[in-house]
Fold this sequence. Notes:
Layout (H helix, E strand, L loop, with lengths): L9 E2 L35 E6 L18 H8 L2 E3 L2 E2 L4 H10 L32 H7 L3 E8 L25 E6 L10 E3 L2 E3 L11 H19 L5 E6 L11 H5 L8 H16 L26 H31 L6 E6 L18 H4 L8 H6 L15 H7 L13 H4 L3 E4 L9 E3 L3 E2 L3 H9 L6 E2 L2 E2 L9 H4 L10 E6 L2 E6 L2 E5 L21 E4 L15 H17 L15 H4 L9 E4 L19 E9 L6 E8 L2 E8 L2 E8 L3 E6 L7 E11 L8 E7 L2 E8 L13 E3 L21 E9 L13 H8 L1
Parallel strand pairs: 1-14, 2-9, 2-10, 3-12, 4-13, 5-6, 5-9
Antiparallel strand pairs: 3-11, 6-7, 7-8, 10-11, 14-15, 16-17, 17-18, 18-19, 20-30, 21-26, 21-30, 22-23, 22-29, 23-24, 24-25, 26-27, 27-28
Helix pairs in contact: 4-7, 6-10
Amino acid sequence: MRPDSHARTMLPIPDRPAPTLTTYDAKDPDTAFPPIEPLLPPPGAPNVVVVLLDDVGFGASSAFGGPCSTPTAERLASGGLRFNRFHTTALCAPTRQALLTGRNHHSVGMGSITETATSAPGNSSVRPNTKAPLAMTLKLNGYSTAQFGKCHEVPVWQSSPMGPFDAWPSGGGGFETFYGFIGGENNQWDPALYEGTTPVDPPATAEEGYHLTEDLADRAVGWIRQQKALMPDKPFFVYFAPGATHAPHHVPKEWADKYAGAFDDGWDAQRERTFARQKELGVIPPDAELTARHDEIPSWDDMPDELKPVLARQMEVYAGFLEHVDHHVGRIVDTLDDLGILDDTLVYYIVGDNGASAEGTLNGAFNEMANFNGMAALETPEFLAGKLDELGSPSSYNHYAVGWAWAMSSPLQWTKQIASHWGGTRNGTIVHWPGGIAEKGGLRSQFTHVIDVAPTVLEAAGLPEPAMVNGVQQSPMEGTSMLYTFDQPDSPERHDLQYFEMFGNRGIYHRGWSAVTKHRTPWIMVGGTIPAFDDDVWELYDGSVDFSQAHDLAADRPDLLAKLQRLWLIEATKYNVLPIDDRTSERLEPSMAGRPTLLRGTSQLFFAGMGRLSENSVVSMKNRSYSITAEVDLPESGVHGVLIAQGGRFGGWSVWVDRGRLTYTYNVLGIQEFTVTADEPVPAGTHQLRMEFAYDGGGLAKGGDVTLYHDGRAVGSGRVGATQPMVFSADETTDIGYESGTSVSSGYDARTSRFTGKIRWVQLDVGTDDHDHFIDPQERLRIAMARQ
């Protein structure tokens, strides 16, 4: 085996050809040049597949004793290793950026999700260029790289079709191929997809059997086969990050029906069953204890009897969703096996990017956006009962109840977002690599963290951490390679110090001990009483004998608790955690959060064909008056279709023409729909169509009066009874002249919503006092630019 001659600490690797004889005539017998060889990593570098599921608690997967059947995870575990003390950050985007960089989430600006970014360095959502992602390092060392699925690392003001694309997977992220979605979640039946940086439509509809997870697996399988067919000697790095099992919990009905009746006795009983199974499997120590249910989480017996069938169905749908995604991960594993490369592939199967999600309210949700808008009360038990049969279907945007999230985190305390306790941060993880791991079916209990994945991959590939990438000096990775654990099951842990923080929930792990404090409750997104940071109550646990943090020793060891609290502050200062920011919904509004916005001012100009504009790419019209003006050319044959629409079936608004009549629809969470239609049709020719919404004021989510105009003349009016104050959707967009995704109004189908006339321009004006019902076409651009 030839030694590696490349100087790999500087990337790209400099071309340094050795001087040779230069002849005058290419036909001279002495004319010779060294062969052109493709760049490859050192000999023996494995293929790498990292699978990261979304929102799966430690006690959900059957591979770790849970009720959700995951045969692929079990298969990989039987041929590899289970890690039962692997940790994440308690939230999705922070975990993903930490995974992809080998650095703590605040170090790479991802203290929380991108949608709540601020201007503070630890919460900006901007990855410093001194911390290059793993995919870039691997690509510049000769790996083929591809990502399929969720990317939640793009700053929201960079998520428009104009970029910049530095934070996109196939832009500056190091992935040569990307197929997936940008943002925190997506409709599994009708996703907003990108191929590279280009928006694309799903290849089929839900009615035709489409589902996002299957599509992502199809793409991953096809890419792996093609890569090995064309570059058999070149290893690859595949990052497979499906949206499952983040809400909405969308899955074909037959997968949910497999669990019919399995959860009828509720979450308390399920937690006991899971705990017993975990002991039986040996994935938790024999002396581990099942932690108690906190008072904030209701018992199953306390839930209304009429709601229990809905609650049980929520969990059936979730279990089917998890089994469904595991099945499609299995298709990727089968492909590796069929190609004869499974033994030479380092597979990480990380079962969750944080603990189970408790963002679905105490009763669960038919549309989880209700809670994100502080409007969960609209989904009454009677409403939920009437939607039981639709859970998981294309007409739903559902989430399960807090009690199920707690049960899926068994035997640990708390859930996603709660970075203080292991229920929010401990995720079962499987590593499979027959070519590099001798033991099959082993268990590893050294403390490990998601920042350890990148250095492990580099060590397995024989690659150094780069000191320079694209001319920028790099800071060291903050994780610790896990490679030492692969064949040394009893080796002392090397990652023995780790801080945790999320929205003020914080903790510190040091040499077996953990000091933690829960600061706020994740399902209370609006309102609630939040203590001052100095009033938070800290707890102390001895992890050497207390796997699940069941026995608080704070009163017994105040000296050690104080030492660990001080150590947390030191680590927090080191990694940009300060200032601690416990705001949640307030940070959805850019001006309150202090982050950049793509557009400023009170006016925005659009043109036909623009679309797939996220909410952060459009001037916000929430909780204020606004108007939409469009100049159009209409044919004699009549006109129909969307002028502009924002959001979709589960919340949004649309200005459209219904069989010749100007129409405005406001959809509140898919629960209430308000429609105002003009009294007369628009005549053929060139016209300005205008909608004005006069907000009632007096707080958030109020209603308002609507007036419709043709060329400045009022032609209709009506009333919108309520509005959404915070967010319409995590995945639906704003489109001009058509509507992508699902339709705002039940009066049209998004797939046939294209405007049949010609749109010259559309202008959105918000919060202005003028009532110029007709805009001089020559002045429109000047007005729009001035208001920006």
